[in-house]
Write a structure and sequence with these properties.
Chain lengths: ~550, ~575, ~280
Amino acid sequence: MFGAGGGTSSYQEIEQTDLIVLWGSNAREAHPIFFHHLLRGIENGARMYCVDPRRTASAKFADRWLGIDVGSDVALANGVGREIIAAGLADTDFIRRSTRGFDDYERAVEPYTLDRVSALTGVPVAAISELAHAYATAESAQLLWTLGITEHHNAVDNVLALCNLALLTGHVGRWGSGLVPLRGQNNVQGGGDMGALPDRLPGFQSVADADVRSRFEEVYGRPLDPHPGLHLTLMFEAMARGELRALYVIGENPAESEADIGHARDALAGLDVLVVQDIFLTRTAEMADVVFPASVGWAESEGTVTSSERRVQRVRPAVVPPGEAHHDIDILVDLAHAMGSELGPRRPEAVWDELRQLSPVHRGMSWARLEAEGGLQWPCPDLDHPGSPFLHGWLWEDGLAGREPAPFSVVEHAGPTDVLTTGYPLRLTTGRALDSFNTGVQSGALDSPIRYGDELEVNPDDARDLELDQGERVRVCSARGSVEMHVRHQPDLPRGLTFTTFHFPGLVDTNVLTTDAWDPKSGTAEFKAAAIRIEKLSAHPQGTAGG
Amino acid sequence: MVDLHLTADVASPGERAAVDAAIGPDGAVVVHESERSIVAGRTRRQSRRHWLLPALHALQAEAGWISPGGLNHVADRLQIPPAEVFGVASFYGLFRTDDPGHTGSVTHVCVDPACEIAGASDLADELERAGSAVQRGPCLGQCERAPARFVQGRGEPDHVPADDAVPFRLPRPGQPHRRLTARLGVVDPTSLDSYREHGGYGALTTAIAMGPDAVIEAVTAAGLWGRGGAAFPTGVKWRAVAAQPGPDKHVVANADESEPGTFKDRLLMEHDPFALLESLTIAGLATGAERGWIYIRGEYPLATSRLRQAIDQARAVGWLGADVGASGRSFDVELRRGAGAYICGEETALFNSIEGFRGEPRNKPPYPTTSGLFGRPTVVNNPETLVNVLPIISAGPAAYRSLGTDDSPGTKLFCLSGSLRRPGLYEVPFGTTLRALLLAAGTEIDRLRAVLLGGAAGTFVGPESLDLPLTLEDARAAGATLGSGAVMPFDDRVDLAAVVTRIAEFFRHESCGQCVPCRVGTTRQHEVLLQLRPGRPLADDRRQLLDDMARVMLDASICGLGHTAAGAVRSALDLGIIGEST
Amino acid sequence: MTSTEAAVTIRIDDTDVALSAGSSILDGCRSVGVDTPTICYADNLTPVNACRVCVVELEGSRTLVPACSRPAEDGMVIRTDSERVRHSRRMVLEFLASSVDLGQADELTAWAEHYGADPGRYGADRAVVSEPVRVQDNLYIRDYDRCVLCYKCVEACGEDAQQSFAIAVSGRGFDARISTEFDVELPESACVYCGNCVAVCPTNALQFRTEFDLRAVGEWRPEDQTVTRTVCSYCGVGCNLELHVQDDHIVACTSPHDHDVTWGNLCIKGRFGWGYV
């Protein structure tokens, strides 16, 4: 947001905010301990609105749940924005002083009347209006989202639409008000911080910036490519075209986690060289030419990770890695050495100090401080800096502390690419369960007493119309493929919507169904919106369901 | 507001209907405004949890127990986690959480001392032989017509057979000095008109004219103190709540009269229900509270129906509601039935019970006057205390003080039962001696061995105390208590060891279990007394143990139940009526 | 104690103690090194003050008061080691020891010894808590013969942390028990296996299955265990973990109760999801 890739707020702020808007996030199950902080906020009197196609466990804690159609988030956000403006509730002082592009935004959202947005989203007019008024009039408000916003073909537009609302009301850059994307993996924030983005060097510094590059080149002792690399989705496209011939995969399992999985596996199989470095022999590793066994990052290795509140924390080895497994740094340094190049220090603290030298936002985070202070939140530019609980305080400073005003963005509604048809009349969306994690490679060893596997959840009325019994095994078909699953009746789903998790690819290859449409701005794929039909497996000829 | 997880058990249509009727149309927390817009949330959940107790009563009456399916329905409607609903349901004696295995009503028979003397065990056996489902239990508050029965109805309303069988009359109806009981047996308790003809609502009219400050001043000047047992000055309590800002305050009539040997509030409510309403309304207006509650014990079906009727009538003519008696002030009353838990007479346990939690006492401070019902400033008064306000307001504090003593002005209701010929409710001026009271009730003084004053939570006194003037100050000086006003003489035909052991059993049964001193102490105390053998002295180490246990219960328990659980036992030991060789 | 509000001064055993507003008597005791037994108190839970073992004598109070939950007020005069205090503490510990198995509650046993508790003086036919060990899954067990009803598990499952409310106190008096609805087995209940109840149990009535199984074969050796602090490997919240390792195997996972991300709490993945290491 406004150029930096991190949530603006601390967990502590949600305990003290007045309004919580949870949008496309089932934090109760996906981020349980963050949800403790959120619950504290509710205990302290905050009201909560939850926007989600499903009435999730999280939504059940809300004062109001808005059951939006999958993929209509921009429409709802624009409608909320229009209503805030129309009701005279926009923070005009803030807009004038700290933002730019408001006029274009106002024009762009003008067509998003409550009636039209209600038609686009399925949410009643009164509920949309209530959300708009509540958000605009709250003293402080936290707007949070997760993959319900970002696993769409227009993910960045979705995020920008939400950012617009914060700019419209001044709900950013202040204690208690902010924009919070919750991170799904323990170091996805840290990966971005460290430059694991196609166009960024560590500390979110642009590869296109010659000054930045020259500082890195001085330390690294070699020139850096000024052109952005490829993000994951583009890599797979390049593989499919035969342009990308070798792939080095560290700690990812794309052979099971990619959308439209058949397509992805073909691409991996067609490579000249596939190198996988992982702690598991994943399905991807099974396809590899070379596998480097790595030590477990959080339990067998020294290092750092960064959380959703931009807090850098230390991880430490508790057990000795088994057999041939080595620290990621050692593998990389040894590999480089074998290829005739020296990467520099191996000691994690020394590597960290090199980063601090190059990344201004991390400069104040010495190893000793991370140890003593239980982690630090970036930006932390020097050793005396306490770290930053929230970002963008400059929006409220005189003269914006010399920065450019924050831009409104014009974004338009564009529904899911996989449109519903008579052949595929039901919407399938995906999500996570409390006791499982992504493709299940880590959580699989957990003997959970409350796991029920990947089932197809169906609204009970739809199930009745389709004559689908609880527990019945059915064939689920999308335009890309089909899988067999068990049906589970789920009253928390609106009609027309189905849902499944994707934690058990060994049992159900859910991502056979999902579309590989992806967002050109971020590279994320549209896991959240496939069009499907359900076919009965019984011998009865009328078994084909879906009308 | 929670993401409830319910078992697969489903309520029967009857259970659903019973619960839905009990909580009313706005009782459900989750509102499906449309398929895509659902309202719920913490505020709705918190503001409806107090329907839990009525919902459980409805389930119990419908099914004869709190079934898993019925419990799930309540949990879903009120969005209360099922484990918590179960925790609440299993707390109360009147709720069963296991299948009773029959579909009939249950007859509760009191086996506490006065009823036991009157043949309660024989009655219970006889009922069982006749095929009734019988549950032997603690005092039912009908000691004046022992042995007492209460029928918990299934397919019929809860009722007390004696209410129909025995016409009401006060003993010695001609006795002078009757203030609080003057209308009992005279007024038609089902008629507001009759109440008004007998002076009803005169005090409220006067109080409205006086204004809150003057009312509290009069109550203070009259020297009224609480009749529930703690004897706290009523005016001080009212003043403290009146000083708290805003109208979101409560006045509560603590009608959970459960002290063994006590039945005065029941008779007041059965035979003069408007008096309680009128005085509670005065309390509300004086303290600025807009909500009044009557928490009545579950075993009082007649008093409950009379009060419900009275509330409806008072509301219909504006003695309750948005403009009480044209005062411009709002006040209304809700009635809640307890469900068989002595501890809910403790004021903070009572709050938890109304709020839909287990009736476990809260730690004090904070005190109810700052944080009481729903965490708001709250006055809690016993019905007897409240109805004293009527003569104070009507006749003034000076006239009120014309009876009684300086420190104990006015009259006191005493509940007499046990070894005597004329059990019943007696209203006498403070200062009347114990002897005079016992003689009035027909006790054979020469056969008297001990008198239990104040019920199970009270103390035994011996015949040497017969000339004790019954006042707060004299009782304190004698190391005794008037407590709830229960007075229970025992003569030489009574097995006092059995009486004392039964008192210990009562506390073991009624301890909520929250704090260790009381939970384990009441159990161990009872176990030691079970080892008592007639004619055999209590061994020194057992006496030491009882003493050690009594001290920790008194010093370290959370609430008054634990503080008083050893009082009667110790006084019996001190008097030598148990544990001595004979 | 970062409050800038006016401080209060109380006197504890003849020592004046200055405290920030909102402090408890227990805070005061600890700040001057007065060792005070607690059972139902934990710094990450709201005090329920049910156990009463922390009672102290407060001048002017008819009864003893619980140090853990009683706010310090200016001018309070406190005695923590008077005969009355020692008597009540001794009796509370004696009562518990006479009712349940404190064999794996080392801290309580030490306090019981300190105060001279003698559970042997109650009759052999006394009531004791007698429940079968509930082993209903592979993550943790419940052995209510060890339960002192401190309510901590209920608070951690409910209002103070997880808000799943899978367990509550049921029944009354000596028969009160921690229970799911109708005592249904945990997998049928609202339990989400966060294990936050296990983490706060003071008597080992709630035990990780790993510990239970190792104890069964005599291989639970806390003295041989190391504890390493790290960060959970699952979602991006950044929960701090303490990995308890014995013989190079993880045998338990807890979270520091004073870290402001978790306050000692975890979810099923963080608490139990280390099996793949």
